[in-house]
Amino acid sequence: MKFIMAGGGTAGHIIPALAVAEELRGRGHEPIFIGTRHGMEARLVPKANFPIEWIEIGGLNRVGLAQRLKTLWQLPLSTINVLGVLERYRAAAVFSMGGYVAGPVVLAALLKRVPVVVMEPNAIPGLTNRKLARFTSRALVNFEETAHYFPEGRAEVTGVPVRREFFTTPQKTSDGRFTLLITGGSQGSRTLNIAASAAWERFARAGAPIRILHQAGRGNAEPLQEVFRQTGMSGEIVDFIDNMPAAFAQADLIVCRSGASTVSELAAAGRPSILVPFPYAADDHQQYNADAMERVGAARVVTDRELTGKRLFEEVTRLMMDRPTLEAMGQSAKRLAKPYAAQEAADALLELVR
């Protein structure tokens, strides 16, 4: 059977959909993605050897008037294009991660009466999932309280699908050098980039035995690389890390944002973290995610406005000198892992079709 996968823009929308697609492919089915040429799906989906069909669509939420008008003009045209895709592949069902790419896909599926399963990773659903919630066949959620946004009896808590490689990340053992992974997601984080570059000189002056692996975001690495080289420290600064599970495997500590996909990957890999919630996330869901991790002892939380080079240096140094606490944080994170989310999503799709 063929299934349409909708999710795009950022890696946080795409990677969970890829995990479900891998599960479907392993069961002998054919997932086909729909996305835009300017989102991260244009890079990640072909790399995972899945076919992808292209549409033109942008965001409606938290965008300027010009972008909103452009999106409203693109929406009917993109929906018509998706209707053709559904017909051509004779799609059995649609899996949606939400986000602006999902809008025309879900609308087209509803028009053709193709069953729709949505995944909502945040405590409060995004715009697309909120607007179309009552029309969905099944909803898979990450938090119990999210279920009430969907029709009674259609939502179940599964957690966020995570690639299998994260669950097989080996426990990190000390090799005499501390590896710090810093990532602001596929788009990068200006706050993390500025704080990290300000902290490098402090680490160098302290003679800390530390290696830095930093994902700076698209187009952001080059200006930082020269600054990093001047410190003489070990490590690398890159735009994007293609193999994030391998990067997690090297890391003793991870400094990152707290999107739902990211915290799910931290849990799956059992890695301690310093979380810096993005303060402008819809409904402040990143703060909610970070607080949940901190409550169980899996992470330390630093607000975006508090993160400076000095604060980052102090937080990292404190944990670097306390290996038992790091190990306890990793174990606490692991207890939050939901290893069957991708399988349960695939089960939900197949149950609808049957």
In short:
By secondary structure, the protein is α/β, with parallel strands linked by helices.
CATH superfamily of the largest domain: Glycogen Phosphorylase B
The CATH architecture of the largest domain would be 3-Layer(aba) Sandwich
Q: CATH topology of the largest domain, which one?
A: Rossmann fold
Number of domains: 2
**Spatial order of the strands in the main sheet?**
3-2-1-4-5-6-7
The SSE string, one letter per element, is EHEHEHEHEHEEHEHEHEHEHEHEHHH
Q: Distance between termini?
A: 11 Å
Q: Approximately how much beta-strand content do the residues carry?
A: 15-25%
Report on this model:
The chain has helices spanning 11-26, 41-47, 65-89, 102-111, 127-132, 164-167, 190-206, 221-231, 244-250, 260-269, 285-295, 309-320, 323-334, 341-353, and strands at 2-6, 30-35, 52-54, 93-96, 116-120, 138-141, 155-157, 178-183, 210-215, 234-238, 253-256, 273-275, 299-301. The protein has 354 residues and is an alpha/beta fold. It folds into two domains: 2-162 and 339-353, Rossmann fold (3-Layer(aba) Sandwich); 166-334, Rossmann fold. A seven-stranded parallel sheet has the order 3-2-1-4-5-6-7, with helices on both faces. α7 runs parallel beside α8 (221-231) and α7 (190-206) packs across α12 (309-320). It is globular and about 65 Å long.
